[in-house]
Amino acid sequence: GGHGTPGMGRGEERAAVRSAEKDRVSTCAFADRVAKESIAEYERRRGSFAYEGVQTVLASILVHDEADDSLRVLSLGTGTKVLSEEHLASDTRGERVRDCHAEVLARRALLRVLYDDVGALERHPRCAAPLPPTRILA
């Protein structure tokens, strides 16, 4: 009948494996490097704190130094939540972050990095060294 996984007999059903849970490698070596560096940075920053058995969405923004082909994570974010209208309405001082999706948090973190860098350059303009050619990847 129509029970279980197609092509399997009774009693041979397997638990479904979601696409995100499968071990896989992309067809693009550069994309694999970006993913590996992003996950490694997330694990370094996370430290010993972990949600056991909970999946999360990770977004990161990296810089690629073409001179030595290195990658460096500039910002990252994790999350999938948006605050409800009720929570936003009760936030009379505008202190809550409305959109906590990983991509939004990574972008906000990048803006903070960039604004901090601009502020440092304004405070100490003579200390600024020329930067190598880079390409920001999102």
Commentary on this structure:
The chain is an alpha+beta fold. It is 33% helix and 20% strand. The protein is built from 3 helices and 5 strands; from the N terminus they run αβββαβαβ. It has helices at 29-46, 85-89, 102-123; strands spanning 58-65, 70-78, 80-82, 99-101, 134-137. A 3-stranded antiparallel sheet has the order 2-1-5. Residues 1-9 have low confidence and may be disordered.
List its traits.
three-stranded antiparallel beta sheet, flat, two-stranded antiparallel ribbon, 5 strands, disordered N terminus, 33% helix, alpha+beta, 138 residues
The whole-angstrom Rg is: 21 Å
Bin the helical content: 25-40%
Our measurement of the CA-to-CA distance between the termini, rounded to an integer number of angstroms, reads 46 Å
Q: Tally the helices.
A: 3
- Could you tell me the mean pLDDT? 77
Sheet with the most strands, sense and barrel status: 3 strands, antiparallel
Low-confidence stretches: 1-9
Looking at the structure, what is the overall shape? flat
- What is the H/E order? HEEEHEHE
Strand content: 15-25%
Structural class from helices and strands? alpha+beta
Q: Order of strands across the biggest sheet?
A: 2-1-5
What is the number of E strands?
Answer: 5
